[in-house]
Amino acid sequence: IQTASKTLSGDIRNTQKGLRDLNGQASKIDGFRKASAQLAVTGQALDKAKREAGELAVQFKNTTSPTRAQAQALEAAKRAASELQMKYNSLRTSVQRQRSELMQAGINTRTLSADERRLKTSISETTAQLNRQRNALARVSAQQAKLSRVKERYKSGKELAGNMAAAGAAGVGIATAGTMAGVKLLMPGYDFAQKNSELQAVLGVDKQSPEMQALRKQARQLGDNTAASADDATSAQIIIAKSGGDAAAIQAATPVTLNMALSNRRSMEENAALLTGMKSAFQLSNDKIAHIGDVLSMTMNKTAADFDGLSDALTYAAPVAKNAGVSIEQTAAMVGALHDAKITGSMAGTGSRAILSRLQAPTGKAFEAIKELGVKTSDSKGNTRPIFSILKEMQRSFEKNNLGTSQRGEYMKTIFGEEASSAAAVLMEAASSGKLDRLTAAFKASDGKTEELVKVMQDNLGGDFKEFQSAYEAVGTDLFDQQESSLRKLTQTATQYVLKLDGWIQKNKGLATTIGIIAGGALALIGIIGGIGLVAWPVVMGINAIIAAAGVMGTVFTVAGSAIVTALGAITWPILAVGAAIVAGALLIRKYWEPISAFFSGVIEGIMSAFAPVGE
């Protein structure tokens, strides 16, 4: 009953997860429809606003002495069109992203209605399946309650088994609890070994190579000295290796990846991808990886940029920034300042990219406009001047020439393009006020800030518990390391025994069927005795020998009596094992029959109730 209950509970959890996934897909479809509709409405409004602005511009141009009201109306129309353009671009990006997510989920937006009908059918079927599973679980729970009531009635019969039964139950219980505790203690070491093998496979190096030994040592040290476990550290190493990092890059990036994951609470995969991406984009060496992580953490800590926004923005801006001679600190300062001004994510990235590209190599009307402002973008050698200096000089030129907002807007659109003009205005102001320089200086001096941030965040009971858990897992890993070779030898030996048994069964199918019936009956008896009362543990141990490994059986035979082994010594080992175990079990049952019979006199009704679910 307990097994059935656990199985049903697991099935219900799986079905609930599937239902959540299906509902999630349905929500994505609904969101896509709404976003698409909003995009269409915004597109119409944008077209109308552009027409109105164009008409006003023509009227303004054709008017000999335009009034102040006409100028204000034209400016308002242009501003409205610009705001609608930004909204339209944002919605278009959102629709494209949602379409991509739907495609990844197997939903084609061109056949959205058909996929939506299929999804609704799947949701209905999954809901019906969930209801059936819940009903089945309710029936099993009712059967368990019935069995519990029966157990109370025969409790007095169980006590007649005497002190031997109590001692047996205690012995089996202690052994079982001890075994489970031992398994749990060794599991961190087992997992650590598995992941080290995966890391070795990804890198394509030998297990005893200096690279693997160094990486293993690093993971253990991080597990011993931080809130992260050795298993966490190895997971980070694998992620970095799969991103293309060699052993040296892995050693450099692993500590900061763990610290970033602890500080920003995002996955190691996401942090490793951002780190390695920025290292590649700015062509920095391995010894700069920790600094990259500190710059990213400081950007999220000192500006309004969050992880997703910063990651999206740098994806667009970083490659162009490197070519323009802009450092990672300066790029982060630009992106952070834009996030403070509510220009976020990909909009901040594309805006920064456009500004850097236009200032690095201005052409045509953009070149003429910059020249009119009296600003130079390159030095006498033809190299691009510092971007922040160019932005400051453009802002000073606007102020010096007393240019109005409309004139400034025209210059901005001519130089940077319509979409990037808003971002350019923010960065020019930030450069002029010194904000970009202050942020850049803070980011350059950010070494060690991520680690400090983690220490502050871990300075509480939760952090203490994580460190305790990490230390506990370190003990399990040490113990597993000491026992791994013995455990592997035992497992390999057991595998050989099982293969021999399989070969014997293939050659002796008739006899194997008979022995299988005997062993199955014995195993059922073990389940009955063990599940109901754990009485007469020597009997349980004797019958358990039927399914034990051959080496263990040898010990059981010796305990039962050397005469059994001698009498069956000429028979091949599978028959010997089963026969000896049955004889040993029979001898033990005979010896302890009095307490066993006293017990079974009160448990027949319980056995029938226990097997009721099987009959159903």
Automatic annotation (TrEMBL):
Give the matching Pfam families: PhageMin_Tail
Which residues are listed as membrane-spanning? 515-536, 543-565, 571-589, 596-614
- Give start-end ranges for the coiled-coil region(s): 74-143
Which domain of life, per UniProt?
A: Bacteria
Q: Is Acetylation there in the keyword field?
A: no
- Sorted alphabetically, which keywords does the UniProt record give? Coiled coil, Membrane, Transmembrane, Transmembrane helix, Viral release from host cell
Q: Which residues form the Phage tail tape measure protein domain?
A: 216-417
Query: Do you know which PANTHER family this protein is assigned to?
Result: FELS-2 PROPHAGE PROTEIN (PTHR37813:SF1)
The molecule here is called: Phage tail tape measure protein
Which organism does this record belong to? Salmonella enterica (Salmonella choleraesuis)
